[in-house]
Design goal:
By secondary structure, the protein is an all-beta fold. It contains no helices and eleven strands.
Amino acid sequence: QVDLVESGGGSVQAGGSLTLSCEASPHTNHRYCLGWFRQIPGKERERLAVVYSDGSNINYSNSAKGRFTISQDAAKNIMTLQMSSLQPEDTAMYYCAARYGVDTLCATYVYKYWGRGTQVTVSA
């Protein structure tokens, strides 16, 4: 079990930036994969970026490359997603997720533990 709490969402104008945070509380000492996902109303949930709990093995989806930066503070168990040049089409509920597994497979896993999400709204 990994408990996850997101924060940092809000409203921003197009071209602006936001940083999301996810505080993780794992119930074991095993390392795990972490990821940022988003869901736009009417669309499937989309994986944005993943990282291993020790901060290694970062992987971005094509939609996140260049504008989003994921990082993991392993000592504090806090993962962040820095988002820049936001556009109205980035408006979505953003979730962090986790699952125990192998670091090199983080981008391929189906994630098991989810936070409640944080809303990001980008206005034109």
